[in-house]
Amino acid sequence: MHYTRDNMAGLLRSHDINPTHQRIEIAHALFSRQEHLSADQVMAIVNTRHSETSKATVYNTLKLFLEKGLVREVIVDPSKVFFDPNTGPHHHLYEVDTGKLSDIDAAHVQISGLPPLPPGMVTEGIDLIVRVRRKA
Amino acid sequence: MHYTRDNMAGLLRSHDINPTHQRIEIAHALFSRQEHLSADQVMAIVNTRHSETSKATVYNTLKLFLEKGLVREVIVDPSKVFFDPNTGPHHHLYEVDTGKLSDIDAAHVQISGLPPLPPGMVTEGIDLIVRVRRKA
DNA sequence: CACCAATCTGGACTTTGTCTAATTTCCGGA
DNA sequence: TCCGGAAATTAGACAAAGTCCAGATTGGTG
Ligand SMILES: [Mn+2]
Ligand SMILES: [Mn+2]
Ligand SMILES: [Zn+2]
Ligand SMILES: [Zn+2]
Fold first, then answer.
1. Each residue of A11-24: pLDDT tens digit?
2. Does the pTM exceed 0.90?
3. Cβ neighbours around A86 below 10 Å, total
4. B57 occurs within a structural domain
């Protein structure tokens, strides 16, 4: 699957998001790379050629994408949030030295024996993060 | 098990940490409560009666405790790190609305089917976070 | 007491993220 | 085409978490 700028408009519309120029650029940054990006990285990518998207818009847009379920948030690094264009069920492998973050398909992973939830609560998600480090 | 200030000195020594007044207070804040505390919360607790520990010392000390394996870091909230006096194997339940964080004993939880690690890497830890929300 | 190393401190600084009031863009109706 | 208003974008001020550093304090040893 190729993610072109032209595709983006449809993708945004299908998630009930009005496709503006900035939103298309931000979606394109995420989906064409299929990588985990921080707001800062999105900002840098979108403004490489010439500055055209403000910091406020980058943050607003990423939050909008999140609310609309177009992207997912990954919290592994205490200093910044990563945004993940992959919303399918998957887990993460985090290389603590380098900060590199990669996906682990949830299909083959099984988690069992979790205690029952407190009453009146529903699971919003289960995050599994494997933290790895280069062998000493 | 009761965690008194007097106990703390021994606990610190057993982790190769020179027990100073500030370090004892900070350890006591964490261990007497057995709760997940942010740096800010530790700061507030330690300085309730009268200000006696600086922000720099709180951060330095928590980092030292972390390095020495006396506490563990829990990253669930993008805005702040929590410090966990429980270093035994366990997972976390996070109530996203309230920010309440509680432990899930790892004894009965089983995680299987994880892919092999990239060569030359070792697992530093596996964090499992169950994010829950009050039912709509 | 004098010395030295370890520790602690205030406060400046950085980074990530939020907020707001003003401007720009977009679109539908006259 | 022109107009009015809603939606979106913007610059920049602001806030909060965390880092850093140079100087002061502490506590033990000779
Ligand atoms: Mn462009
Ligand atoms: Mn005290
Ligand atoms: Zn991912
Ligand atoms: Zn815990």
1. 999 999 999 999 99
2. yes
3. 17
4. yes
